[in-house]
């Protein structure tokens, strides 16, 4: 990636919020688009508002002075009792896909995990988001859980 990854600053808020709709990709077809848009926007708003809290993080990737992507999340305890870093949101702008922005953001989270002595990084993505699933697989992520839904007519 030609650019830098740095901690989120308030000046980044609008650019980060503008990327939130990309989180709608890969959501099941039976989910309400309006409801999904409201949810993903809410997740990003909460992430940036809580970015400075202990155990939480938001990083932005900046290329040529423009926010090209961001990652947010928190340190938490998995249901098994293991500590992990959870990536709540990872978004790269369409203008910067394939340039290593997503990898640079995950590398930054990985560095944090190692510094904290945490041995796992987890995240969720939609089953239909095949490009994201392939991207995460290429970085060494393995699928761990499967969520099943029955839609009633």
Automatic annotation (TrEMBL):
Q: Name one Pfam family in it.
A: Acetyltransf_1
State the SUPFAM superfamilies in the record. Acyl-CoA N-acyltransferases (Nat) (SSF55729)
- Coiled coil feature spans: none
Presence of the UniProt keyword Translocase in the record? no
Example of a GO MF term: acyltransferase activity, transferring groups other than amino-acyl groups
Record keywords, A-Z: Acyltransferase, Transferase
InterPro entries xrefs: Acyl_CoA_acyltransferase, Bact_Acetyltransf, GNAT_dom
Heme found in the keyword field: no
Instruction: Pinpoint the N-acetyltransferase domain residues.
Output: 3-153
UniProt protein name: GNAT family N-acetyltransferase
Q: What is the lineage of its organism?
A: Bacteria, Bacillati, Actinomycetota, Actinomycetes, Propionibacteriales
């Amino acid at each position: 990636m030609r650019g830098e990854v740095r901690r989120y600053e308030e000046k980044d808020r609008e650019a980060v919020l503008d990327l939130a709709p990309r989180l709608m990709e890969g959501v099941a077809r039976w989910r309400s688009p309006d409801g999904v848009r409201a949810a993903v926007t809410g997740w990003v708003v909460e992430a940036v508002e809580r970015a400075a809290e202990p155990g939480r993080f938001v990083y932005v990737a900046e290329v040529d002075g423009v926010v090209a992507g961001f990652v947010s999340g928190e340190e938490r305890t998995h249901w098994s009792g293991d500590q992990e870093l959870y990536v709540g949101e990872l978004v790269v702008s369409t203008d910067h896909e394939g340039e290593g922005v997503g990898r640079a953001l995950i590398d930054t989270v990985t560095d944090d995990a190692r510094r904290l002595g945490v041995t796992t990084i987890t995240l969720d993505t939609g089953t239909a988001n095949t490009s994201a699933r392939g991207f995460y697989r290429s970085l060494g992520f393995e699928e761990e859980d499967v969520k099943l839904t029955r839609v009633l007519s």
